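Late entry, written up from scratch paper. The run itself happened at the end of the previous shift, but nothing got recorded in the book at the time, so transcribing now.
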Amino acid sequence: MRELTYVARRTLEWREAPDPRLESDQQAIVAPVAATTCDVDSMIIAGHGFIEPPFPIGHECVARVVETGDSVTAVRPGDLVVVPWAINCGTCDRCRAGLTAHCTAVPHMAMYGAPLGGNWGGLFADLVRVPWADAMLVPLPAGLDPVAMASAGDNWSLAWRLVAPHLKRVPGARVVVIARGSIGLYVCDIARALGASDVLYIDPEREHRNLAEGFGARTAEELMPDEKGFDLAVEATGRVDELGEALESLVPEGFCESAGNHFRPGELPLLDMYLTGVTMRIARDNVRVHLPDALDLALHGDVDPGRVVSGVYDWERLPEVLTERHRKPVFVREVD
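Output as recorded:
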């Protein structure tokens, strides 16, 4: 089989790899049919990552099940499924506590798309082995488009987690989103659908702001000093200075969710945070836990994740298109 490999800055190529095989009766082999880039993939391809190439890339896809072990009961060959980015067993103490991104059955940081916690391959591949199929794979509900939901295994479900629990805790909350890619746009769509009284989206990209306005958000190129009093701030830029701005925009005891990958160090307004009593969470996402709720919102809620997709491309064009700058390209192929 082939797997897309990140070779150097803005350089990707197909490389041959052995076909994955079932190694236990709990496993499955899947074939991605609609795959897309996470916001962090774009940073890696642009040369801003911290892992030396080469390595297989890609960790967001909807796939078709090709083969299952004898003990697998949740899915069967032919099913369309969402593949979560993090490898997890579903039965260790951490998995049972909902910490599926911190599974103790695998090395720390085990994931698709980067050689952290072992080499599990990437989801821009012809075939992928899923080590615990019942724990990891989530059937795509009938009625959802695989292209629109290609990001469900990470960014879409992460966006749900960034805002939905807070709006349940504080109905009608005011939300500010400081972002550069798909995560922030998904957050705008979800926040409006779940009843946020005000959504302000900050992004220098005019095209992104137009999309956010279509989701009902106010927009600006930068966060002005007089924009304060938000119950929730979401930062998804990877820029520490903008994380600091998000923190300073909150009401007392407000909450900041940081979804940016901060590859560079920086300073935060710690004294202001102390005096205001804000809470900040910066964490890799336990996506498998809330993936069903995120899919349910996509199916039944007043949301439209497909609007964030910036283009649909043939699978064979992956090495070519990903070297260019795109917001959320989706790559598709037919798999029987």
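The chain has two domains: 2-154+304-332, 155-282.
(Scratch paper discarded after transcription.)
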